[in-house]
Design a protein that fits this description.
Number of strands of chain B: 14
Number of strands of chain A: 18
Low-confidence stretches of chain B: none
Number of helices of chain A: 12
Distance between the termini of chain B: 18 Å
Oligomer: heterodimer
Mean pLDDT of chain B: 93
Strand content of chain B: 15-25%
Radius of gyration of chain A: 26 Å
Distance between the termini of chain A: 39 Å
Order of helices and strands of chain B: EHEEEHEHEHEEEEHEHEHEHHEH
Shape of chain B: globular
Largest sheet of chain B: 7 strands, mixed
Chain lengths: 387, 289
């Protein structure tokens, strides 16, 4: 789960990591007042969206006059914002972070992230931070400084020193660097972050480190033991996604015409691939999960039914933990609450498949059965052609 | 032959008194797996499906000689269960639990590595050596004994692939779900190595997904070792919309991209047969053999 920059900075501040003075604002008037209150020569305004690449996308601007800042905010608040990193997806700008603009001497990259192939957290540093950091890393991988953190011992002082020397830091800032790194690791391990990235980490003209930007990804599986972080979880934006979330369904709304209900994320993605090969476009990703109940199946189908983009529904279930009779029951219960007006292609195999088929056959539901995935694909393709 | 488990493997089930544990203990016994013990703290002394239950893994091992564990313990306690199993010197640990906090798993994995125990999962459908034994959630009937080794990150998609093969009379030596989480135990490379040395396995099927770099590492391994057996792969998620990127750390740490397309290219470069259509997995394996 990704946090907004202002939330990430709020957490880091609690671990003694210096961040610029600032306030978050949701209206143009609040932006003006925040800019006045900061009473610094120059402020920076940053749109609060979760995508990276905001600077290049026009979501960051500097102002000396609070009224000008307010006018810029007026123009961008409420708009749909996308960057080169969002692949066409956009996000509404609901808040702006107003901060004191820092005079920068040098920029670094600093992050702690999970190295999946090692199963361990690693500190990454690059002496040239900023927006081009990936290009720098690709062009000159020798500049990347890494320290793998021993999961049983934690970050060690010698690693912090070694990083400082390899990053070319001067000895005057060593004690600051040490506090910064230990603070960062403490934040990552105590809040159970999967990623904490400070880019750029600035060395100001006053020779102090300041985290100019921060990206944090929290572990949803650990949120249960962090009540203090729960307020940071934003509600889903799409009403169908919100509905799905209420019932513990893993649903993502897309723009296609074939609604699909599948168990398991891998099979769900493969089903979407199949729909595309059949000439359709997936209208959603919906993984009802291994432990799906009758109610979850029912609500999942209702969600597909309420999606106006859906022209045909494809139910693809390979019963494992989820038994086919549970699926059948869910479908039957859904049909009591809504009347399906679009064709449903169903492919079902696995645990208790006979019982599932028997239930559906005696339910009177009008379904288009398929025994294999390619047969299902052919039937979907036929329906789409008929329009 | 098969890898990791066979009809002689003695299995203990951690969390045997819970709903899932009980249900799958029964299923595993029916399939022929030697389930010799169960563990639920505080429930020592009772029996589940005729299997004696112990309070601790250590007791269960010393009383029954179990060598492998199946873990059905809730997410917040599962990493602890994995460590308890490793500490009792079990050779193979299969953890089914979904949703284990990542930091817990990072610590458990380090603990395991220090003890030399093998972990499958977490968040896995488990492992099956058809006709011999299973420590898993998969329906036994879709499998049959045969020459294909299967390694997968997904659950139901593996069932689908196996089903397509079995329908075409292509059996499997062993099928292993490595687990869908970010931190897992055995990975593609570990299992490719085991299948290489297994005389029953004539070909290997890899089932991967977008995200992470595990499939890229598998491709490197196959290429660098001139892997002696034919390998095919399906990568799910070619049409999945790219997620919004979060920061640069992912790209910097691996220096590689985790999209379906970049994985497919790497696999092809390693002379692995890439299956594009998920309904053609069985057909492709038939041609490959």
């Amino acid at each position: 789960m990704r946090l907004y920059e202002y939330q990430a900075k709020e957490i880091l501040r609690g671990y003694g990591i210096p961040v610029p003075k600032g306030e978050v604002a949701t209206t143009a008037e609040e932006v003006r007042r925040a800019a006045e209150r900061l009473s610094v020569g120059r402020v920076v305004l940053k749109v609060q969206v979760k995508a990276g690449g905001r600077g290049k996308g026009g979501g960051v601007a500097f102002f000396e006059d609070p009224d000008e800042a307010s006018r810029w905010a007026e123009g961008i608040l409420g708009t749909e914002f996308g960057t080169y990193q969002t692949a066409g997806q956009r996000e509404q700008v609901k808040a702006i972070l107003v901060e004191e603009a820092v005079q920068i001497e040098r920029e670094y990259y600093l992050g702690i992230t999970l190295d999946r192939s090692r199963g361990r957290f690693t500190v990454l540093g690059i002496p040239q931070g900023g927006v081009e950091v990936e290009e720098v890393a690709e062009r000159s991988p020798e500049l990347i400084v890494r320290e793998e953190i021993d999961p049983l011992l934690g970050l060690q002082p010698f690693q912090v020193r070694r990083m400082a020397f390899r990053m070319g830091l001067s000895t005057e800032v060593l004690s600051q660097w040490r506090d910064l790194l230990f603070g960062l690791w403490r934040a990552v391990s105590e809040k159970e972050m999967l990623l904490c990235e400070i880019n750029p980490l600035a060395l100001s003209q006053r020779w102090t480190f300041v985290a100019l930007d921060a990206k944090v990804e929290l572990d949803e599986n650990a949120l249960g033991r962090h009540p203090e972080l729960r307020d940071m979880v934003p509600p889903p934006e799409d009403p169908l996604e919100e509905w799905a979330k209420r019932y513990g369904l893993n649903y993502v709304k897309l723009r296609g015409n074939v609604g699909c209900l599948v168990n398991g994320a891998g099979l769900a993605m493969a089903t979407m691939d199949l729909i595309k090969l059949a000439g359709g476009e997936p209208a959603n990703f919906l993984d009802v999960g291994g432990g799906a109940t009758v109610e979850m199946v029912k609500e999942g189908l209702k969600i597909l039914h309420h999606d106006p983009d859906v022209k045909v529904i494809f139910v693809n279930i390979f019963g494992g933990i989820l038994r086919c009779d549970t699926l059948a029951q869910g479908m039957i219960e859904a049909s009591r609450e809504i009347s399906f007006d679009r064709p449903i292609v169903i492919r079902m195999e696995g645990t208790n498949v006979e019982e599932g088929r028997r239930l559906l056959a005696s339910s009177g539901l009008s379904l288009i059965p398929a025994t294999e995935m390619d047969e299902a694909a052919a039937k979907i393709s036929e329906i789409l052609k008929e329009g | 032959m098969a890898i990791l488990i066979d009809g002689e493997t003695k299995v203990l089930v951690q969390g045997i008194t819970g709903g899932e544990g009980r249900f799958h203990t029964k299923r595993m016994l029916e399939y022929g797996t030697k389930v010799v013990a169960g563990v639920t703290p505080g429930k020592g002394g009772i029996e589940v499906e005729g299997v004696p239950v112990f309070d601790t893994v250590k007791d269960a091992v010393s009383e029954t000689g179990a060598t492998a564990s199946a873990i059905f313990v809730p997410a917040l306690y599962a990493a602890d269960a994995v460590m308890e199993a490793a500490e009792a010197d079990l050779e193979l640990i299969v953890c089914f639990t979904e949703g284990i906090p990542t930091h817990d798993m990072v610590r458990a994995k380090a603990f395991l590595e220090a003890r030399g125990a093998k972990l499958i999962g977490p968040n896995t459908p488990g492992i099956i050596s058809p006709g011999k034994a299973k420590i898993g959630l998969m329906a036994g009937y879709i499998h049959r004994e045969g020459p294909v080794g299967v390694i997968s990150r997904s659950g139901t998609l593996t069932y689908e692939a196996v089903y397509q093969m079995t329908k075409r009379n292509i059996g499997q030596s062993t099928c292993v779900g490595i687990g869908g989480d970010q931190v897992v135990g055995l990975d593609y490379v570990d299992l490719l190595e085991l299948f290489r040395d297994d005389p029953e396995t004539e070909a290997v099927l890899l089932i991967g997904e977008i995200g992470g770099t595990a499939e890229l590492e598998a491709a490197d391994y196959v290429k660098e070792t001139s892997y002696p057996k034919p390998v095919a792969a399906f990568i799910a998620g070619r049409t999945a919309p790219p997620g919004r990127r979060m920061g640069h750390a992912g790209a910097i740490i691996s220096g590689r991209r985790s999209t379906a397309q970049s994985k497919i290219e790497a696999l092809r470069e390693a002379a692995i047969t890439v299956i594009e259509d998920p309904s053609k997995i069985g057909d492709t394996m038939a041609k490959l053999l």
